[in-house]
Amino acid sequence: MTALQEQINEIAHRFAHHPPGSPVVAQTHQEIRTMLGDVAVKLAHLTGRSREQSLALTALEEAMFWANASVARHHPDNQASGFPGRGPGG
Q1: In 3D, which of 60, 18, 67 has the Cα closest to residue 37?
Q2: What is the count of structural domains for the chain?
Q3: Model pTM greater than 0.85?
């Protein structure tokens, strides 16, 4: 496979929809949302409304996104994505 084809496969994987492959995956997504949502609420109680607070909340939201993207893209129950090189261990 050429470097360009590998890159195209990676792009396809990154932009694909990755539905939960099992109840375990769905629960993992929920645990991540709950955990970071709880931290965001605590942070809102401890800090005043400000640009800095907004940036901190945005960073938590971004952390939630990336954590859930990792689960969606790489959890063993989600490995049957249909993209070349993305089978088990891919």
Answers
A1: 60
A2: 1
A3: no
Half-sphere exposure of 15 (CA within 13 A, CB side): 6
Q: Please, are residues 6 and 85 in contact by the beta-carbon 8 Å criterion?
A: yes
pLDDT tens digits, residue range 19-60?
999 999 999 999 999 999 999 999 999 999 999 999 999 999
Helix (H) / strand (E) element for 49: namely: none
Burial 65-82 (b: 16+ CB within 10 A, else e): eebbeebbeebeebeebe
Say how many C-beta atoms besides its own lie within 10 A of residue 40's C-beta.
19
Query: Do the domain assignments include residue 39?
Result: yes
Tell me, yes or no, whether 4 lies in a domain.
Answer: no
Let me know if residue 71 belongs to a domain: yes
Note down the domain range covering 44: 22-76
Nearest Cα to Cα of residue 83 among 16, 1, 2, 3: 16
